[in-house]
Amino acid sequence: MAKSKPVQSKKDSKVTLRIKKPQLKKIKFSKPNLSNYKKLFRPVATVLVVFVAFVLVDLLVQYLNNDYSIAVVNGVRISKNEYHKKLEDLYGQSVAKQLIDQEIILQEAAKEDIQATDEEVQERLDDIISSIGGQESYEAALVANNLAEKDLKEQIKLDIITKEILEPSIEYTEEDVKAFFDQYSAVIFPNETAELEEGEKLDYELYKEETTDVYIQQQVEQEKYGWIDGLYTNYKIQDNSTEKPKYGVLTTTINIIKNLTEKMNSNVE
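User: That's the sequence. What structure does it adopt?
Assistant: Structure tokens below.
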């Protein structure tokens, strides 16, 4: 009987794997052909430069259209210079006179040491806001009149100064104020008038002080322009909106010295 061969178990069998190390020294690395990359890069770079140039030109055109134009019609710019020139031709002289008048008032106030405090200006502004129905109505009125609050405060300041200068010269009687109240009470006190019963009238004595203040302010406005026109002869005014500027030797220096001398003399007095 033939003997059977012993069966070798998997645990007893050993398999040896040998990994051959690569011979790195024998591997040859080829150098990249830079000329091919340069050939590819040049047209890409050219396209990129041209694109950036077009973007910059387009932004420049937009800038000119938006910042140097008052309007653009089918791509045609209407320049702000043309716009300002038209405004100057139409309103230049009247605006220049208004600014000259304001400067005269300020200089007259400085001579008499008259000022308007921020508190006085704010108090007058609060009265205006209340009279037109509150903050929301006030802000709507600013937008409707294309007016900034800063400019309104400057006008209020000017009104306060003008009133303080001219009020001592305003002559009136209580009968004048009472007649003014009877005629304009509904305009001066619209909210109070709206709350009255039919046929009822506001009591003059209750609103006498406020009415007097409004009456004096109206009289000041009527007297203001004649007063300013009378002061024109006391001031050396160069209105470049109506005449060409004049130049002279040391004119500015002489004017500065003259103004300083007048100021020193007024302080001494």
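The chain has a mean pLDDT of 81.
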